Amino acid sequence: MSETLRTSASFPANFLWGAATASYQVEGAHDADGKGPSIWDMMACKEGAISGGVTGHIACDHYQRIKEDVAMMKEMGLTAYRFSISWARVLPEGTGRVNQAGLDFYSALVDELIAAGIEPCATLYHWDLPLALHHRGGWMNREIASWFADYATIVGRALGDRVKWWITLNEPSVFIVAGYRDGNHAPGLKLSVTETLRCLHNALLAHGTGTQALRAACPQAVRICMAPAGYAKIPDTETPENIEAARRSLFTVAGQSLWDVALWMDPVFLGKYPDEAPAVFGAKWHHPSAEDLKTIHQPLDFIGFNCYSGIRVRAKTAAAPAPSDGSVRGTSLAGGGSAISAAPEDLPYPQEHPTGQLSWLMLAPESLYWQSRFFHERYGRGKLPVVVTENGFCSGDWVALDGHIHDGARIDYLHRYLRGIKRAAAEGIPLGGYFYWSLMDNFEWAEGYRPRFGLVHVDYATQKRTLKDSALWYREVIRTCGQNL
Ligand code: IFM
Fold first, then answer.
1. pLDDT band at 8, cuts 50/70/90?
2. Which residue out of 171, 241, 244, 377 is catalytically annotated?
3. Is 384 contained in some domain?
4. 171 an active-site residue?
5. What is the pTM of this model?
6. Measured from the CB, is residue 171 less than 6 Å from ligand 1?
7. Which of 251, 225, 244, 362 is nearest to 305 (CA)?
8. Which end of the chain is more exposed for a tag (fewer CB within 10 A), N or C?
9. What is the pLDDT of residues 180-204, one digit of tens each?
10. What is the count of structural domains for the chain?
11. Which strand (E) or helix (H) includes residue 431?
């Protein structure tokens, strides 16, 4: 693996060094204090849906342990914590009646974080839709845009005096495609592409209305974005042709898989779906109105993205003749368009290429650099800071005889990936923060508890938390603001 890293520049002094979790994955207390059921409560009870037949009923019992868990974050030196709010804890039926106990829980968490000097970053939706809303059509129903706005207003009013960093939706492509088309995530539906496109559009509309509602409800200036998911596209070697090929591979809607990031990010950041989408989807395309696109296209304050891995790309065809002014196009940070002919070819990894416990997590350290750079070029308007809202590694960690967790592979993964962000900083890309996924081992959706992503080991039988070696290593990165990378 070639590493041409320039590590001279520093991370900004106010860079958020964080870790992330999500409500259903850590909280437990699935029916405590007036919480309503969510689609994941339903999915977890469905036979065969979750590996090992486990549920998130207890998970990490975070709901009962916020003092202990925030103290642990402080011990780790974190300067930020990204958590999600369970919509059904706040609004048990999804709309209407507010469950004050639910809001109080998040308010207490925020107070605890602030007292510990840790910046709270709240996600409004990390996949646990109130079941009552599913019965009203969930993401298939366009009305969800106004249900979500009402929910955002309630949460913004309750927490917006203290929470400055907000994320509307976590990985909309995953909860829509895996939940509504592939059926392996909640609510477990297998809809057509036409119907799934409708869900996609409704999710983006909700991002827009939710953003408007949050801004109106929070009594201070807040920073809002969403957290899209996707593989990075990495030029196989850093020639102008390969760089342009990787850029095109990243931003082109190549088929009807619905995973292409531009389908999810272009409307949000550029106010339009990718130009090729109507041709790619043909009669299945939904032809959004200009008014909808305006709602989706809200001013945002940073570019958030979740990225764990990347795919190498090379240019299939030869370069076009050099421009007559002698410049090299297709490689500039400000650019995006290019005269270089670079039909992309995604390259497969050899079978033996290193992965995490989950096979989709191929080691690809340059991912964070290229994702930051390409998103900055296309969406950043030269100024929006990039925030890595999730990145992490899962391994089969265990407590060694000496009582420690020696997760060397995670340290190496983290070290390599963070050097990629450091390179982005060195090249002048504005950076806002990094959130490791996850603070602690937790319920990994359909995969159950087997994959361990945490910096902190959780013994699910006793709920004992133990800082892994990686947590101690990350603490040193934070302490030196990345100087030791
Ligand atoms: O656990 C998930 C998280 O909920 C969303 N992003 C990816 C993580 C690892 O699969």
1. very low
2. 171
3. yes
4. yes
5. 0.94
6. yes
7. 225
8. N
9. 999 999 999 999 999 999 999 999 9
10. 1
11. strand 431-437
